[in-house]
Amino acid sequence: MKGPGKGKTNNPDGRPKGSPNKITAELRERISDFLNENWEQIEKDFETLDPEKRVLLYEKLLAFILPRLQSVQTPDIKPGETPLIIFKDFKKEHEEETTKK
């Protein structure tokens, strides 16, 4: 029998975290090649879309080039608490300062 047997592996720790699997890398390369080879047609098709569909497609494409936002934890705000946020009226403050002078 070749290999360690059914259900067992030569690498019990598995693939290192963050390393892409071979299929994913190959698929990304094929998609990239396809897009590069057909870019002019893709641009023409994009221009023919309704504005709403164009925005949706643009948004989906941005997901591939922009990093994803992660939630931010602040140590002074406990989960479930709603912090008090005070917005200043800077225009009003500026007008009051200029009228005092």
Describe this structure in words.
The chain is mainly α and 101 residues long. It has a domain at 21-70. Helices cover 49% and strands 0% of the residues. The protein is built from 4 helices and no strands. It has helices at 22-37, 39-48, 51-62, 90-100. The mean pLDDT is 79.
Keywords:
single chain, 101 residues, mainly alpha, 4 helices
Summarize it.
This protein is mainly α and 101 residues long.
Topology, number of strands: 0
Helix and strand run: HHHH
The biggest sheet, with number of strands, parallel, antiparallel or mixed sense and barrel status, is: none
How much strand? under 5%
Distance between the termini: 93 Å
Low-confidence stretches: none
Instruction: Give the CA-based shape.
Output: flat
Alpha plus pi helix count: 4
Q: In terms of structural class, how would the helical and strand content be classed? A: mainly alpha
